């Protein structure tokens, strides 16, 4: 896995919303909503119906039916095996964004247990859950609260890539590990597309990723399609929330499960050929190496 470094970027974050609002409560202040572990932000006030949609990309994989870890933090009272990778985290990501942009219908559509069930029902209706082929599933939520999906095949990965107990430190990873990176949350993504074009990354399946750098302080923010993890002071770290990158689903999972810690990662600290990991909600966790470009 090679990396190229580009910037600047905007801040997009995610919070875990626990309450299921009523229609009448959706115009109340966001401060009245119960929030866990992630920072609050005042909602945007939109003067007209938006021209973009919200989305998250997740993995469908029948292998996940064998994983008890995949239904941890399940918001329904009777969790059953699920083929969609860390689905509660993806619901939280969409819900936070809907609150951030102050979209009442979208908030109502996916809030609480009934909203999560709505998301799960949409996925099971639109995705062939009898298929043995893993898929990248893009879930789109519009301003009116309508959920749609689109999907495409992706290569298989072992469960250990999706739920690693730890990230091996540098120089301990088998050199034969394949560098698979089919890495794909509004639909307005010109900045990410532009970054990949400038880095001359031809396709989403290319084994190259570009990291975004803050133009303000030259800190690592995120990858165009991934969360990066660098080894610092004897542990794996990922860019802090204050760096301005997105709070991805696998990033949250890694922090919650002690895989990594948050830290400021200056661009100047990167070295040619240093080992790293990247992750996202489609491919799980993937090993790579840094390539510094002029």
TrEMBL record:
Coiled coil: none annotated. InterPro entries: Aminotrans_IV, Aminotransferase-like, BCAT-like_C, BCAT-like_N. It holds the Pfam family Aminotran_4. One of its GO terms (molecular function) is catalytic activity. This is Aminodeoxychorismate lyase. It comes from Monilinia fructicola (Brown rot fungus). The lineage of its organism: Eukaryota, Fungi, Dikarya, Ascomycota, Pezizomycotina.
């Amino acid at each position: 896995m090679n990396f190229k470094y580009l910037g600047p970027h905007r801040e997009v974050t995610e919070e875990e919303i626990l309450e299921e609002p009523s229609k009448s409560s959706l115009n109340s202040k966001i401060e009245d909503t119960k929030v866990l572990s992630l920072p609050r932000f005042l909602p945007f006030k939109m003067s007209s119906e938006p021209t973009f949609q919200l989305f998250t990309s997740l993995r469908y994989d029948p292998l996940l039916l064998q994983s008890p870890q995949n239904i941890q933090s399940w918001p329904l009272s009777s969790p059953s095996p699920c083929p969609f990778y860390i689905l509660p985290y993806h619901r939280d990501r969409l819900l936070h964004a809907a609150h951030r942009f102050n979209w009442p219908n979208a908030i109502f559509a996916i809030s609480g247990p009934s909203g999560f069930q709505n998301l799960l029902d949409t996925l099971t209706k639109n995705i062939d859950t009898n298929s043995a082929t893993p898929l990248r599933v893009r879930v789109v939520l519009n301003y009116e609260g309508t959920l749609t999906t689109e999907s495409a095949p992706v290569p298989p990965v072992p469960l250990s890539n999706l739920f690693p107990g730890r990230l091996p430190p540098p120089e301990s990873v088998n050199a034969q590990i394949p560098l698979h990176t089919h890495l794909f949350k509004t639909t307005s993504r010109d900045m990410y597309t532009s970054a990949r074009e400038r880095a001359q990354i031809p396709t989403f399946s290319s084994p190259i990723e570009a990291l975004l750098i803050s133009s303000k302080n030259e800190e690592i923010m995120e990858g165009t399609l991934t969360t990066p993890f660098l080894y610092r002071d004897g542990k794996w770290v990922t860019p802090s929330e204050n760096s301005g990158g997105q709070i991805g689903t696998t990033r949250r999972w890694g922090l919650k499960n002690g895989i990594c810690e948050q830290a400021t990662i200056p661009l100047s600290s990167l070295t040619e050929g240093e080992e790293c990991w990247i992750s996202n909600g489609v491919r799980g966790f993937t090993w790579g190496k840094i390539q510094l470009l002029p």
